[in-house]
């Protein structure tokens, strides 16, 4: 029996460069470098950018990864959002000015839309689906009007199997609007209108990011996270080192909220899947005996180092106006997560790519075993 293997790419702004590094390592580890090992690709936020870039160029998996890596290694802030005085100060103008009703975000991301249309061949998605290189591409966004996690799906299958109060699937022809919507980090990037509805970052309300791929038939999951997984004892030591002698600033609170909303879900979802796998092993149920449960092998590759800390060390590379705006609400040292979302800078992105590549190579035996298992 042939497996349907899904690639799951999570969100995190400029942290998406790490995913490119992991995939670069994967393309070197796999024996068939030209053929994609994934029948389903699912992405949210920054992962949506990488998902579409990959899905549109799957004729050669290794070449697609090479072009994706090159794009991230050359990216600059002005290719993602406007960095002029008026654009950057939309937040302060909206909060303290005359109260423009159009204000909904700190930054204007029109340049990102231009970048996506210049570097993504959206017609290639259909071409690869029609040729059998890909079965389904899934891009998930949060519907601000209904509060539902909406998965836009371009697929060889015309059957969609779910429509729930908080999770909806919608057949679509993926374009730059879907990526822009999925990557619209709350408060930082503006909401995007698709049809009559407005959408934002796909990580919001998306507590089970692996679910859309599983619902589309995936029975193996290769997941790339962008958050360092600390062991309990390491986290405890870090907590002891945190000074608690002053109240957190606005930027510190916002930093924590974004971290919780955008970065926690995919790793937790993988852990749930792995616990269910263990439960099935313990009970000995298999086939139809498991009453709807089945084992879904899931391998998650996550950063071995804190990308937020690396971003903090490169904070001086952000446009000066962005640094000044953040500093108005607190210290840059308190904004490591925010910095890592916004630091679309070649120096930071290359560091993230290098880490992703090294983490993949360090996990070579696990990766080989994962793709060898029938």
From TrEMBL:
UniProt keywords, alphabetically: Hydrolase, Lipid degradation, Lipid metabolism
GO biological process: lipid catabolic process
Pfam families: Patatin
Motif GXGXXG per record, residues: 11-16
Residues annotated as the enzyme's active site: 45 (nucleophile), 201 (proton acceptor)
InterPro entries: Acyl_Trfase/lysoPLipase, NTE, PNPLA_dom
CDD domains named in the record: Pat_hypo_Ecoli_Z1214_like
Motif position, GXSXG: 43-47
Membrane-spanning parts: none
Positions of the PNPLA domain: 7-214
Keyword Hydrolase: yes
Molecular functions per Gene Ontology: hydrolase activity
Name of the protein in its database record: Patatin family protein
């Amino acid at each position: 029996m042939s497996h349907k293997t899904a690639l799951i790419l999570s969100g995190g702004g400029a942290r998406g460069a790490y995913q490119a590094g992991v995939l670069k390592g994967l393309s070197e580890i796999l024996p068939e470098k030209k053929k994609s090992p994934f029948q389903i690709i699912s992405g949210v936020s920054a992962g949506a950018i990488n998902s579409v870039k990959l899905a549109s160029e799957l004729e050669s998996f290794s070449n697609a990864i090479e072009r994706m890596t090159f794009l991230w290694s050359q990216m600059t802030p002005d290719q993602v959002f406007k960095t002029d005085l008026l654009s950057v100060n939309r937040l302060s103008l909206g909060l303290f000015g005359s109260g423009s009703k159009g204000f909904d975000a700190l930054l204007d991301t029109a340049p990102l839309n231009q970048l996506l249309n210049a570097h993504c061949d959206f017609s290639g998605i259909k071409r690869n689906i029609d040729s059998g290189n890909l079965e389904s591409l899934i891009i998930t966004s949060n519907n601000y009007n209904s509060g539902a996690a909406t998965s836009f799906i371009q697929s060889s299958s015309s059957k969609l199997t779910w429509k729930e109060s908080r999770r909806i699937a919608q057949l679509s022809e993926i374009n730059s609007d879907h990526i822009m919507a999925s990557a619209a980090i709350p408060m930082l990037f503006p909401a995007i209108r698709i049809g009559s509805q407005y959408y934002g970052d796909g990580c919001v309300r998306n507590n089970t990011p692996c679910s859309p791929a599983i619902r589309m038939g995936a029975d193996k999951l290769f997941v790339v996270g962008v958050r360092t997984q600390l062991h309990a004892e390491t986290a405890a030591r870090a907590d002891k080192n945190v000074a608690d002698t002053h109240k957190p600033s606005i930027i510190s609170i916002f930093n924590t909220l974004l971290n919780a909303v955008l970065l926690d879900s995919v790793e937790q979802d993988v852990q749930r899947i792995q616990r269910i796998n263990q439960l099935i092993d313990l009970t000995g149920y298999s086939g139809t005996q498991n009453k709807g449960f089945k084992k879904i092998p899931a391998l998650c590759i996550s950063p071995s180092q804190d990308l937020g800390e690396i971003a903090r060390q490169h904070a001086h590379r952000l446009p000066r106006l962005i640094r000044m705006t953040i500093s108005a609400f607190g210290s840059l040292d308190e904004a490591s997560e925010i910095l890592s979302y916004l630091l679309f800078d070649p120096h930071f992105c290359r560091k993230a790519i290098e880490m992703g590549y090294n983490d993949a190579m360090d996990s070579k035996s696990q990766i080989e075993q994962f793709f060898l298992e029938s």
